Automatic annotation (TrEMBL):
Residues 171-243 are annotated as: Disordered. It comes from the Eukaryota. The keyword Disulfide bond applies. It comes from Pluvianellus socialis. This is R-spondin-3. GO terms for molecular function: heparin binding; signaling receptor binding. CDD domains: FU. Belongs to the R-spondin family. Interacts with the extracellular domain of FZD8 and LRP6. It however does not form a ternary complex with FZD8 and LRP6. Interacts with WNT1. Binds heparin. Interacts with LGR4, LGR5 and LGR6. GO terms for biological process: positive regulation of non-canonical Wnt signaling pathway; Wnt signaling pathway. The lineage of its organism: Eukaryota, Metazoa, Chordata, Craniata, Vertebrata. GO terms for cellular component: extracellular region.
Length: 243
């Protein structure tokens, strides 16, 4: 055993020294040098830390540094997250996004510019004036539309969502709501009253006919039957003509 190597290695080290830490790692672990002041210590990790990417070799797995402007990377030439002040685009870290793209300060990426989109106009509303549709000749009508896609920071702004124009209607007088309602109520009451009157008359007629029928039946039951009058000729005594 080399005099600088230690037998009791910990933390995933296959070989180590008291001064330099890990010299090699156990299988599937990555070897990386950590700087502590002026000294570098070897450590073995299951994944590479921020600013490094892993490279696997037949005899050892190592962590290599990303580019200076890259915070995390898949390979040295493909960054997955940029450091502050840079924007990620196609694996590269840029200070300014290319033409046709804009910088997203939330994700720190270069994204496509999104323009505003609006729906089709609705039909024109009825011609009104001060909320009424009668009692005037000139009024206004409006139409509206909705925003279906809001723009990004550099996208085209959204257009107006409502339009108004002058309109002309046939002048007509407004019917008073209270009077109209009163007339409808009176008409309804009159109809109900007429129906009730007809119903009562029909009921009285049926009751009168039933009473007359019962009276005739009672009279027929209580009136005695008339006896047949005797024949006057049969009751006369024979006249004696001898004298």
């Amino acid at each position: 055993v080399h005099p600088n190597m230690s037998q009791g290695c910990q933390g995933g080290c296959a070989t180590c020294s008291d001064y330099n830490g890990c010299l090699s790692c156990k299988p599937r672990l990555f070897f990386v040098l950590e700087r502590i002041g002026m000294k570098q210590i070897g450590v073995c990790l299951s994944s590479c830390p921020s600013g490094y990417y892993g490279i696997r070799y037949p005899d050892i797995n190592k962590c290599a540094k990303c580019k200076a402007d890259c915070d995390t990377c898949f390979t040295r030439n493909f960054c997955t997250k940029c450091k502050s002040g840079f924007y990620l685009y196609s694996g590269k870290c840029l200070e300014k996004c290319p033409d046709g793209l804009e910088a997203n300060n939330h994700t720190m990426e270069c994204t496509s510019i999104v323009h505003c989109e609006a729906s089709e106009w609705s039909p024109w509303s009825p011609c009104t004036k001060k909320g009424k549709t009668c009692g005037f000749k000139r009024g206004n009508e409006v139409r509206v539309r909705e925003i279906v896609q809001h723009p990004s920071a550099r996208g085209n702004p959204c257009p107006a969502t409502s339009e108004s124009r002058k309109c002309i209607v046939q002048r007509k007088r407004c019917q008073k709501e209270g009077k109209g309602k009163k007339n409808r109520e009176e008409k309804r009451k009159k109809t109900n009253k007429d129906e009730s009157k007809e119903t009562r008359q029909e009921s009285k007629g049926r009751a009168a006919r039933r009473q007359n029928r019962e009276q005739r039946e009672n009279n027929n039951k209580t009136q005695p039957k008339k006896r047949k009058a005797p024949n006057k000729e049969q009751n006369l005594a024979p006249i004696d003509t001898a004298h």
